[in-house]
Amino acid sequence: MISQHNGEHNWTVAHRVLVPAFGPLNIRGMFDDMKDVATQLIMKWARHGNDYKIHVTDDFTRLTLDTLALCSMDYRFNSFYAEQMHPFVDAMVNVLSESGSRIRRPGFLAALYRKQEYQYWKDIKYLRELSNELVQNRKNHPESRKDLLHAMLHGKDPRDGSSLSDDSIIDNMITFL
Fold first, then answer.
1. At 53, which CATH number?
2. What interhelical angle do 56-73 and 87-104 show, nearest 10?
3. pLDDT tens per residue, range 43-84
4. CA dihedral of residues 4, 8, 13, 18 (deg, nearest 10)
């Protein structure tokens, strides 16, 4: 088993803190939340009736985001109650798309993509700010819920007793979502 990722200490700490959170009992404990979100999707389809054209990609993106957010950090995006995707989804899609485009673009063309560059960093800022709000909210209003956010906030590396920094927690939250 690899204990490090390019020598990154935060990666090894996060790995050792989070692996137990993905155990079978913890995943089983998420089933009720998974069922809750899946039920919201079915209810959305039922509300719209038989003539409704289901947008599978959009609805399954909402299902995934809402399930991960609820199960891992007790946050509800409530995506099935709005026509538009949650701004987090839009920002995430934009960041991933632009990241892919950047790899294929020669560096000397970067100056031609200022608008995309501006939006890219604006979206990253939004993702980090929302994630930071969730971290601060949980710190200010602790819960007994033993989800991934709890593990990241309170977990200690069994090898050296290290904890995750807020930045590392935010990075991991964005990665999960």
1. 1.10.630.10
2. 110
3. 999 998 888 888 899 899 899 999 999 999 999 999 998 888
4. -80
